[in-house]
Amino acid sequence: MNLKRSYRSLIGGVWAGVLTTCLGLATVTVWTDTRDYERTIRDARSTAEAVVQALGQEANRLVSSVDMLLSAAAARVDAHTFGANPSYTRQLLSGLMAHVPAVMGVRVLDGTTAGVLYGQGGVGTEGRPSDAELVRSALAMGQSELAVGWPTRIGPADSWFVSVARLVMPRPGETPLVAVADLSLTELQRLYGRLDLGPNGAIGLLRSDGVILVRHPYAPDKVGLSVAGGALMRAAAGVAGGTYDGSASPIDGVSRYGSFQRVAGAPLLVTTGVSKDETLSAWREGVRQDAAVVLGISTVLVGLGFGLTRAMLRHRDLEAEARRAAGMLSAGEARYRLLAENTSELIVLAHDDGRRSYVSPAVRRLLGYTPEEVVAMRLRDCVHREDLALLVTQARRLAAGEPQVSVVCRARHRTGAWIWVEGAFRRIPGAAPGEPAIIATFRDVGERQRHARALEEARIAAERASQAKSDFLASMSHEIRTPLNGVIGYADLLLADRTLPGRHRRYVDRIAAAGGALLTVVDDILDFSRIEAGGIALSEVPFAPAALVDNAASIVRGLSEPKGLALDVALDPAVPDWVRGDPDRLRQILLNLLNNAVKFTPAGRVAVRVEAEGGSLRFCVSDTGIGIAPEQHGRLFQRFSQVDGSIRRQYGGSGLGLAICKGLVELMGGTIGVESRPGAGSTFWFRVPLPPCPAPAAEAAEGRPRPVHPARLLLVEDVPINQDLARAVLEAEGHGVDVAGDGTAAIEAVRAKTYDLVLMDVQMPGMDGLTATRTIRAMPGPAGTVPIVAMTANVLPAQIETFRAAGMDGHVGKPFKRAELAAAIARHRADGGETAPVPTLVDVEAFAAARSLMGRERIDGLLGMLASELDRRFRSRSSDRAGLAHDAHAMISAAGLLGFTGLSDLCREIEEACLSGADLPDLQRRIDAARAAALDQIETLRAA
């Protein structure tokens, strides 16, 4: 039976090898073909992109040349009214048209009547029927782009042209001019025809609305056809260029890998396409060849498997017969050997000099050698060289008098493999000279070593997984924080506009609050692993519970109202006006519970109640929704858990929200729970300690930073929207701002100019912010010590430590808050940014007299006008004396009329200093501080 089982295993191994080889060969072939498929598609797309970029550059040059020609024509016609020579105009335009062969003719039209004022070439002064429509398009387009007309057939059946127009703004009081050029599409058709993208490749020039102007291969009946709504136009919507995988073309039914690029200065689109069938034809042929090779090799391997199987079956029968004969001859010897060789451990008797006098027969099972062979072997021949020193050290300890030592090492097997064994060495008491003095026992510990190695590998894998998680969270945080920077930043800018109507201000305030709530969610996800360990940091700031609950309800009301759900808010009169705690974390919990209530309530109402219980507040969110069975309550607050699979399919969600709520509530020292039954709605409640506190100072509640001396700032940022937002915020505070698009530009700017502070983004194309900071820190002189503050969406603690190690002085996270940014600038700027003194601005008696004379409504309107004037004036720096003098003169009488005598006197002092040539920096600082204080005072007076 043992022999049959052994051969059965051997035959199974042969077939396992055959099948594994066939499967591996097939897998490698499929993987290779898949990679070739992706490379083929990538090469096709790259070809299309390269051609479209070249054609786009050619189209840009053509548009630029035509635009220059049209501008010259309009300028010359305008000059005719002052006596310019028409003959010179014709010579000039003839020379320009000679450099643009595609231009058939030029004419200048009256922007009001569409009449021809001047014509050269083409239809001359007669004009075309489509000129009126072209003039309307040019007027609507403005001066931002050329207007492009409809393609028109002329002459032979295959000749087309298109008219393009440029609006030329006149001098005040004069009629606008529209310069028009007729472009021959035949010239472009010849250019496109010289390019080769394969028999079924395609090249085209389209208007931005999808109308075909030029196409190769040429199809005269397709010129003027619109492909709006197709795959190309959907892919090109709102972007400057890109690729697309189109379905069958509406022109010729061919599917292509395409690329497109918009033309600068005109509503045109250049597109190229490579046929999918032609691209993949060679790849498909290779797949067929690979399949044939794999099938042939697999057939040969299966044949070899059958041959080996027959040979092993014959050998098994012969070996069984020989064993039966030998067994009858040595039955007695076999019984004795069975007893000797089944000892569980290998036993060795040795002398102090290392000689072995006895090795038990168990050595055969453990190492494959005979006892005689092991007795004759040298120690270094049977122990791994890396373990030999440890074994010798333990032997010396035994010789020094220790009664017992042990060692784990690798011993060589007869097959050449290394076997992990554990040896225990003991001295034999009373051993006579010349007799063995050491007894050693060895046992196989390979399985234990494999388990230890598996545990170590599992630990390493867990550490890598943890690092991968951290990398993912860092990337996710950066990608979400970057657009949030624009949402929250622009909302803050709108809220700073004092002319914004109250209703719009409420809308913007809710946008800012919703953006802050989303930012809190992102931060909570980043901190979730620390919630369970109690390592997350909570803020302790004063806030109004009523405002917090109203804000959360306002955000969720946009979800409840479309479903027809009533959303009620009730506060216990005993709830304090102000408490101390973390409002962002509480808003996160409330929004999560409210969103769940609205999601699972098809009809009825959702209610929020807040009750005071000693030094704690109890928040309850109730609904009339589907309810939850009592046996499912325990699963609600577990991570990634929902009541059942149908809930996730019907309502969505990851099952993480309530687990985050539970962690945050417990971190605040509170409790959370639920009361619900099916069909009777649910009530989720939580109780957290929130001690009452006095209301914060008005200035702190407003969050407006005190006026500071304007600084010279360098903003290093690669994203245009972030550049625009940060620059608007900084310049609104009176700072001078230069912008650099990457680290290299930042280094050049710091070398060329002295700055009070550098705001440095971290992740940028080219040279990143960390490299740029290290380079700046290595500069000699003051440039190397300029304060640098990181302004980035990377906010993990490890990332912030990296910023400081690179030489940065501080950090402002995106999306930034205006107060935090102003505080960072004031804290780190090189000049200290001391606050300028603010004079007494308002004469109370004079203001009261003015209000009594003109009435409250009119004085309120005049205050609003004064605030608007202050908002837009005094933006000039001290180098622009004329601008400062003009602004100061304009404000002297306006401020004095409304009782702002201190501001009026300061403006008069600035005007005199500008006219006399006196120093202005100190006055500039004083007017900046007075301007900010006056705006605050106006807001207070209008609210009184």
Secondary structure: elements and pairs:
Layout: H1 2-80, H2 86-98, E1 103-110, E2 116-121, H3 131-141, E3 147-148, E4 152-153, E5 160-168, E6 177-184, H4 185-193, E7 202-207, E8 212-216, H5 231-236, E9 241-245, E10 256-262, E11 268-275, H6 276-329, H7 331-341, E12 346-350, E13 356-359, H8 363-367, H9 371-376, H10 379-382, H11 385-399, E14 404-412, E15 418-427, E16 438-444, H12 446-495, H13 502-532, E17 541-543, H14 545-560, E18 566-571, E19 579-581, H15 583-599, E20 605-613, E21 616-623, H16 645-651, H17 657-667, E22 671-676, E23 682-689, H18 698-702, E24 712-716, H19 720-732, E25 736-740, H20 743-752, E26 757-760, H21 769-777, E27 788-792, H22 797-806, E28 810-813, H23 818-828, H24 844-854, H25 856-872, H26 881-897, H27 901-916, H28 921-943
Parallel strand pairs: 18-20, 24-25, 24-26, 26-27, 27-28
Antiparallel strand pairs: 1-2, 1-6, 3-5, 4-5, 5-6, 7-8, 7-11, 9-10, 10-11, 12-13, 12-16, 14-15, 15-16, 17-19, 20-21, 21-23, 22-23
Helix pairs in contact: 1-2, 1-6, 12-13, 12-19, 13-15, 13-17, 14-15, 15-17, 20-21, 24-25, 25-28, 26-27, 27-28
Key terms for this structure?
28 helices, alpha+beta, 944 residues, five-stranded antiparallel β-sheet, extended
